[in-house]
Amino acid sequence: MAKKNSFFGRFRIVIRRSPLLLKCAVLAALVVSVAALTVIRVNIQQAKAQTEAARVQAAQTERENQKLDTLIQQKDTVEGSKNIAKEKLGLVDQDTTFYHIVENQD
Question: What's the pTM?
Answer without folding.
Answer: 0.50
